[in-house]
Design a protein that fits this description.
The chain has 87 residues and is of the alpha+beta class. The protein is 29% helix and 41% strand.
Length: 87
């Protein structure tokens, strides 16, 4: 499913996508920041994802969730939640 997620992200977002390979896992990472938030979205090859968005001014999490992804439609829901929290 990792390649399907990468293809979906390339077609449906303009974020810079980093693919990280190490001994134990492969992941797709998006790092994002602006004047309000510091954020990271990670999708691992075990079909789980992590959504982290922190308010720069307070240092508190706006979003800090890990989810199991059951398919590309499920992935799209979590990615949209991440994008909405960046506003």
């Amino acid at each position: 499913m990792l390649s399907e997620v990468i293809d979906w992200m390339k077609k449906n977002s303009s974020y810079n996508i980093n693919v990280i390979n190490n001994e134990l896992t492969t992941s797709v990472v998006i790092d994002y920041d602006n004047e309000k938030v510091l954020a990271r979205f990670i999708f691992w090859d075990d079909n789980s994802c992590m959504l982290e968005v922190m308010d720069i001014n307070t240092g508190k999490y706006i979003l800090n969730e890990r989810h199991k992804v059951d398919g590309i439609k499920d992935f799209a829901v979590f990615f949209e939640k991440f994008k909405r929290s960046l506003e």
